[in-house]
Structures are given as structure tokens and as C-alpha cells.
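Student: Please help interpret what follows.
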Amino acid sequence: MIKRAKLVKEEIIKSTKVNSITKFGLFFFNLQFIIFHLLSIPATAASDTNLTIIYSQDNANQWSGITSRLQAAGVNYCVVSLDSIRTATDWGERKVLFLPNVETLSPAQAIALEEWMSKGGRLIASGPVGTTSAPGVRQLVRALLGGYWGFSLNNIQKIQPTKVKVTQDWAKAGVFGQVRGGVVISDESTGQPAAIWDTKDNSTAVLTTDRSTFFGWRWGVDTVAASELDSRWLQAAINRHMQLPPGASRTVSGGAKNCVTSVAKLPNSSRSTSINSAASNTQQFGAIRVDPSIFTSPTARTTATATNSQSGFPRNIPRSDEAIDQLEQNVRLDVVPNSTKPISASEAAALRQELQNLIGRVESSQLSASAISGKAQPLKAQQASFASVRPGAPTFSNSQARQVADSIPQLVARGQYAQARSAWLAARSSLWKQFPVDQRMAQPEIRSMWLDRGTIVRAGSEAGLARVFDRLAQAGINTVFFETLNASYPIYPSKVAPQQNPLIRAWDPLASAVRLAKARGMELHAWVWVFAAGNQRHNELLGIDKNYPGPVLAANPSWAGYDHRGQMVPQGQGKPFFDPANPQVRQYLRLLYEEIITKYDVDGLQLDYIRYPFQDPSAGRLYGYGTAARLQFRQIYGIDPATISPSQTDLWQKWTAFRTEQVNSFVAEVSRSLRAKKPDLTISVAVFPLPEQERIQKIQQNWEVWARRGDIDLIVPMTYALDTTRFERLAQPWIASTQFGQLGAALLVPGIRLLNLPTPGAFDQLQVIRDLPAVGYALFAAENLTGELQQVFNNTQGNSATVKSSTSASEPIPHRQPFKTAAVRYTALQAEWKWIEQNNQLKLTPTGLSAFKEQANVLETALNQLAETPSASRLTTAKSSLSRFQSQFRGWMRQHSAENPYQVRVWENRLGAIEKLLRYGERSQRM
């Protein structure tokens, strides 16, 4: 572990010199467990041992709970401010260091920590340590801890003993109990679980190395764990690390004398002087420290925030401006070439399954291309000219790739880990080359792309924007989400909003975009930010004060939402938000959207940031305390929500439900008002793909309700991932037919983020969507459409001169012509069955084949008649024919499914997509 940490440190030093942190890949993990039993803690010298504890902005609001537990544990401790850490000596002289819930470390601090530990220092950490740091820092912290915080658990769980024979005796002093924690991902080469969660997969709760102990929960927070549980585990960890060999020192030589006994005594800290006396200035509700300033005027709150930012503890938290990026912190299926790190049996099974799925996707794409062209897809050594596929790599047939997949578990069982990885990577590269990307293969589908503000600004004029639209049209994109409202700045000259985007000079991009889209047979949907009212990044582009809240909130500060500290910009994020409960906000936004759809002939409106900011109650990150919201809640329930703690379950759920309803009701209002003015307007929403209840708790976004009520037409979940396995895991639950009843008649269009995604990976994710019961995709964003991907799109779905079939401009767009789309897609499906039959690959008895063809023709006639002349009676006939065909299809395909189960599932999924188109058409055309 020491050697590995040093290597990571060298990378950080190297990259820091060029002002850049290298993005490291995530390691494979294997959860191994060690059993322990509940015993009383032995009497040791913990009480007379100094512990250094780190105070930072991340744990400032939790400090009261942290210090009370330290005292309950009988620990003599001293405090060091994270802001004072520059070198290894700054960590202090004590042997044991505690980082409670410290999420942000600078590169210099991480390197200093590694050097301090290499001199004999021992580390205890808790919570999502280092998770908001730069990628290189996160990697070094993982090396030091033997693993990393993966993700929060949805529900409270119980800490359990591990389930293997070897035990870590020190852990016997821990206590069982209910904890709201998170999963710690172990690097099996260094990290060893000492306790697990009572979950189905027994994920790790406490992780250790010889130099560290890592608690998988936020230590010192009342709403997370009981004080006794926290205290006992800390005592046990200190005892573990203080078991020194004879003659060893209890201090780390060369340590600085910068440790004090309370935060109030930290030098050069105007903010910290009031921390220990905060009880007289704040109201305490459970684990939440409520600042009285949130009861004051917005002006006073803004001033207080500015003052805090100038104190000894500046709010310099590195962040991702997009909360959706947190999805990528979860484990991905990464395979590191030439690594000899052990692979578990479960990992081997996952690798085998992913290769099998990839084979299925390749064969499915080859079948689609063959059915369209009438020609078989030969195995070509360089069929796909993907830059990320290594030239000269072995070329396998699909059957040979299956043999490689089947060999992975055997190689792992023999301990041939490097060979297993090499075989897997070679097979994947070979399969990527077999995608038929040199000819048309796509069916009619929603091919949408977000056209971002940066690309619009760089275009500079209608002529420049025309070149962008030419590229999109050539690529077969038929729906453009045009960024029309960003950080309260409209891209066009508005009579409702106070100011057009200053980056736009002397032209109207929205008017140009409408003309350009219509001339190319594309739909133009105005993409608007809803409740996100400003953007610190945009301020930097404009060269203005970073904390400027945007032109609307600057003029109307009472319209803002606030966190529980009275801050307009939530901690770790970069955007102030409107208060969705404020009637004036709601009226202003409705008028602005009405202006867009009436002044410009747009085809649709996309609502983005239709939520509250990202929150985490267990970390004390709470939001929604706008003036209007607090007043309305108090009128209903007789209590100010700012005084409610998450530990007050009933009241907290009422507060969460209240905020969720503000978003729900606004979507309904917008839908009614805009459709009254433009009945054929398509309304879409860009949303999080998190599980429903987790999403409601974190961002108060319940888009299932919007879909069931018929408020929206298209759901665009931001299923962003850098590998296909993770993408499919995010997208499939919502696309699958079993979820359809929860979404009414709305169509689901998964989003793919192109940033840092290699071209074969992007195409692979598209094939996942095409093989599921979906009717299209959305790409983020135009600025990331590379030349290589452009050419692939030109060939497979676009208007390139090399495409001899009909252009995408003549194809129906599913949300505009759902019945015609259903008929054309079914014709393509029949072409695949015909191709399979002609090549003697359709495994049906003569009787079964006759019945299959007869019912297939009946369905074809019903769908074609509905597409030609839609009517309620023809819709009923088509739905009945489809339902009858679907019910018999599995029986007809029983033998074929035994030989090719993936392809049969694909066919079933495509029939499911046709069913969704019929249901959408029934609602949209009011039949």
C-alpha cells in the first residue's frame, strides 16, 4: 500500500506542476468480510492519549455532535484547522489523526497526509472522505484508506459482524446498531472489511488497512448514528492504532505545535472564535444548527454569507456544478491492462456477462443492417475505424468471442488474472470492430441533441449557426434541444426577462435556429433552466462577481431559495435557485415561457433544473428555506420548517412532501397554460434517473407523477455513464416494459453524455437503447460531437451521400407521428424475421411458421391502416392485433430463444416500443 500511495502521490505532484490533475480510473473491488462479536471495550490508555482531530468547513455544522462524542469517549484531543495544513509537519505530533466527514482536500494536503503517515502516523476517517476533491486527490486518499466511499444507502441499516473466519480483535469493541450510512468500496489488495451492513450483498461498513480505519458513515451526526455507537467505535479504532511495539514513540517526530484544545483557540480565524459559543447565537434542532440569519431579510443573509467567505475558513470547496455527476462516482466496470490484481468469482462472472451482452448487441446491429441492405455482414478486419480500437488487435468471430467470454472464469480460477484481462480487452476491441458502422442500420427514432449555449455563442451569427445545423442534419439528428434560457439570461431579446445573454451580440439566435431547423426538417425545442437562477461559471465568462445571483434574483432577492445556513448558493454547488413556492417566481417563469412559444415557432419546450438543489440531510446539507416556502408551510402546519430536524421523521416527511408538491404543481401549471396557447407543443423534461424515493429526498423531483397526469410528453433521464454496463443499469429500469404503467403514455428518451466517451462506447450505448423498448435517445451535447462520431452517424442514420436509402428527413419522428412510426418500425422488424427465415435460421415448425406469418400479416395490415387514416376504431384494432401477437410470440420463439435468447428479447422489446407508440398516439391525438 505504501508503494502504491507513493506512486499516486508522484502523479499528483507531476500533474500539479502543470496545473492539472490526472483523472484516474476506478479500481476493481471485491468485498471480503471478517467476523466480530459484540464485547465490551477493554480498559486501555485511550483516555490519556492525544488525538488530533481536523476541523474543516465540511464538518463545521456538525462540530457540536463531534465534540460531544469525543468527550463521551473519554478521548483527550486537540484540534487542527484543515486550512492550516500545507506540509506533513502541519498535521501535528500525535500518532493518530481523525478526519471526520472531511470531503475536500487540496493536492498539497493529500500529499502532506501521505508523507505524515509514512513517518508512522495512523489515520481514522469517516463519511465520504475526499469525495469532492480533485480526481488525483481522491485516488491518493483511496490508496491510504484501502478503499473509498461508494454511495449512500437508501435506508437505515444495521452494522453486522463480518462472515469469514479471520477476525480483527479490535473490532469486537464496536457496537451493533442502526446507522444511516454508506457503502465503502474495498481495494482488496490493501483494504480489509472489519464490519458489514445488513444488506443483501453485505457491503462494507468499516474498512481497515495496517495504517488506517475507515467508518462508512458520517461520524458525530445525531441523525446518522447514536452517540454511544460513534464513541465506542472511535475508542476501538484509537486502541487499535495505539498498540505500539516496545520503545516506540506515541508521537510523530517533527510535528508542529499547532494543535489546540478547541476551535475557538485556532489562530487567525475570525470565524472559529464563535464556534464553541455558538449555542448562545443559534437554535439547536437535533443535529442541525440553525443560523438565526435565515430568519432575517435576504439582504442581511447575503451580507452574512459574504462575511463568512472572508473569514479564516473560506468556502473554497471544489465542486461539480452538476449534481448529476455524482452518479459517476459509483463503481464502473473498468479493466486495467496487464494488472495482476486478483479478480473475484463475482467479478469474473460480471466480465463474462458483459462480453456476452456485447456479442448480443453486435449481432443485433448486424441483423438490422443486413435486413435493410439485403446483404450479410462479413467479418472485416477493420470494419469500424474507431480511433479507440487499437489497430492490429486480434479479430474474432462472434463465436470465438463467446469462447473468450466462457474462458474468463477458468482463467480467474487458475489465478491468471492478467491473461483474463488481456483476453477480455482483446475480445471487446474485436467486437467493437464488428459494429456495421459503414452503412445505414437505424430505424425511425427520436434522435435528439442538446445544442448548448457555448456552441451557440461560438457560432456568432446565423451563418455560423447554419454550419452547426448542417452537421446535425447530416448526422440524422431530428430534434434539437436549443439552450434558450441559461442562468436567467434568455438567448433572445426578451420583453419579460431583464437582460439578453451578454455573450450574444447583435443577433437573435432563437429566431435563426427556428428557421434553420425547419429548413432541414428538424424539430426545434426551446431548452430552459427552470429553478436554477444563476451560474457561477457563467459569471466567470462574463468577468463579473462570481457570486452574482443572476439578473432576476439581483432585482428580486426575496424570490430566492436558501439553505439552512442562509446561503443562496448551496454548499459544494455553483448555482443559486429560485424558491418554487414563490407565486411571483411562478408567474414570471410562465410569462417567459409563453413569450418563447408565442413569439417563436418552436416545436417544443424542455424543462431543465426542474427541481431543488442537491441535498443530503445526513451531511447537514438542507435546502428550500425561501421566504414564501417557510411562510406557506407555517400556515399549513403551524411550524417554521427551518426549525425541523431530519430526525423528526413525521414533520420532515411533511416538509419534503411540501417541497415536492411545489415542483409537481408548477409542472402542471406550465403544461396547462402553454398547451392552451399551443396545443401541439411537445413538453419534455431533463431529469435524474435515481430511484424515485431517493430522488424525492435529494432533489424533490417526482417525474413519475408528471408523466401519469399527462403533463409531459417526453422524459429525458440523464443516464450519463462512461461505460456501457453502468449506462444500461441506469437506463433499463425506466425503459423496461414493467415500468411503463408508472409513466402513463409519456415516451422515455435516455440521455448519453458524449464528454470523454470514446466513439465505440457511444455507439455501444446507442445499441443498448435500440435493443430495449425505447423510441430514441438524447445526446449531450453538440460541443462534444467529434468528427469520428459524426462520420459514424452520417453512415448509419444520417443524410450522408454514402447512404443510398431514404434520408432521415423523410422519416417520421416518433413524438410527432407515432402511428406512422409504429408502422415503419414494424416493417423493419418483419424484414429481420424474413432475413432470418431466408437464411434458415428461424427455428419454427412448419405449423408454427404458418401461424406466425399469418398473425404477423394481420398486425401489419392493422398498423398500416392506422398510420394512413388514424381513427379510434382503427387504433382499437391495432392494439388488439398487437396484444394478440405479443401473447403468442414467446411460444413461437421458444426454440429460437434457446439458441439466441438475446435476439428474441430484442424482438420482444421492439414490439413493446410499438405498444408505447400506440399509447402515446392515443393520448397525443386524443382518440
Q: What stands out?
A: DSSP finds 27 helices and 23 strands in the chain.
